[in-house]
Each structure stands twice: as C-alpha cells, then as structure tokens.
Specification:
heterodimer; A: about 80 residues; mainly alpha; two-stranded antiparallel ribbon; 2 strands; globular; B: about 160 residues; elongated
Chain lengths: ~80, ~160
C-alpha cells in the first residue's frame, strides 16, 4: 500500500492518546490502532470526518502518498 | 432458528457428527473383521454366512469366499480406504461445525476444511461409484469458493475503520 497513515504524528502534535481519541470519535481502540499502524484497508468518510473534526486537521494531514513505500512493500512481497 | 453459535443448528450437528464418528469407527472395525473372515476363511465365512442368512435370507454374502483371490486381496484395502475416507470426512465436517458453533464462519481454516472435504468426497464418490455424491462434492467445491470470497470480504470489513 502506497498510502501512509500519519495519524500517530498528528496525535503526538495534538498530545492526545489513542484511548482518548477513540472515545471522542466513538471508535474502538482496536480499530483506531489498525489505522494508526497502517493495517487499514479502507477508511469510512464518517471516520475521516470525525478525525478531522477532533484533531482539527485536513484529511491530507492524516495520510500521504509515497511511491517509495509501494516499491519497498512490493520488494518485501517478492 | 439460530444457525451459528452456542445452542444452534451447528452445535447440534457438531454433537451428532461427534457421535457418528465413534459409531462409524466401531461399526467399521467390526464390519472389516467380519468381512476379512468371510474373504479368507471358509469355516469362519460359512459360520458368519449362516448367521447372516437367518437375518436376511436373500443375502448373497455366502458367495464372497468364491471370489477370485485377486479380487479378495483388493477388496480389503478398498474397504479400508473407503472407511478411512468416511472417518476423515466426518472428522473434518465436525471441525467445520465446531467453528460455526464458535461463530467462526468466514475464516481461512474453514476454506481449507471445506476444500479438503470436497476433495475427499470426490474420491469417495468415485470409489463407491455414486453419482449423487459426486454432484454434492462439486457443489461443495463451489461452496468452498463462496466461503473463500466471504473470507476476503470479512477481512476487508474487519480492516475498514
């Protein structure tokens, strides 16, 4: 996957814990952890909306595209 | 009616299959011993055939001893393979229903179990020359593909936040 989640960085900037954020956006800790560790396959618009609202950021702050990351992932898959 | 989970249709089938496995095992051991005696012992075969004739007069089991030697030699391993296949299929089906009882439906292990059962059922239907079972085994292959697709969808769902 060439999309990298930057949720951990934004959370560190806002000084908010995973549990606290999960409570605020009404999501389970495990689901937020899946997103934080980059294991998520898909993100609901409603989740993105809640995250942006609570973290006061743009969707682009939470994720970014990296072609290098894709190449590394492909090589690991070989 | 509940299909999955505790106290459901799956748990009932799981219990029935558990009992069936032991029943098939004991009956098969007994039947194989009787069959072996009838195949290779004239006196033992006659004794068993006489008792079988009392229960079922039309039975032609007495003729087994008159089979050619090669047929009698092949018969025993054939029966053994059929019985082993039966036991394995019941065991695997029990594992599948145990997973259903634990609410594990779309899972990779279920795909493997279903695939294994379908392959064994194909072999069994060919060995016993049973066309109906062959059709059932083909349907099971398709069910296996459906569970596989379902597993992929389940994984997708679990990883959607």
């Amino acid at each position: 996957m060439s999309i990298i989640f930057r949720l951990d960085r934004v959370m560190a900037d806002r000084k908010i814990s995973l549990n606290e954020l999960a409570k605020r956006i009404d999501l389970t800790d495990s689901n937020l952890s899946i997103m934080k560790t980059g294991k998520a396959r898909a993100v609901r618009i409603s989740t993105l909306d809640a995250l942006c609202r609570e973290l006061n950021c743009q969707p682009g702050d939470l994720m970014e595209y990296s072609a290098d990351h894709q190449n590394t992932a492909d090589r690991k898959g070989e | 009616m509940k299909y999955f989970g505790k106290k459901s249709l799956s748990s009932a089938v799981n219990t029935i299959l558990h009992i069936a496995w032991w029943a098939v095992l004991y009956i098969s051991i007994f039947a194989a011993a009787v069959f072996a005696v009838m195949l290779f012992s004239r006196t033992g075969g006659n004794w068993i055939a006489a008792h079988v004739a009392q229960i079922s007069p039309d039975s032609n089991w007495q003729k087994i001893y008159t089979w050619p030697l090669i047929a009698r030699i092949i018969a025993l391993p054939y029966v053994a393979v059929v019985v082993i296949l039966q036991l394995q299929m019941i065991k695997k089906a029990q594992q599948l229903f145990a997973n259903f009882t634990n609410n594990i439906v779309f899972n990779k292990s279920n795909v493997q179990i279903t695939s294994m059962i379908s392959k064994m059922l194909i072999a069994y239907s060919i060995l016993t020359v049973d066309f109906t079972l062959f059709v059932v085994s083909i349907i099971l292959v398709i069910v296996c593909a459906i569970i596989n697709n379902g597993t992929a969808l389940q994984e997708e769902h679990d990883l959607t936040v």
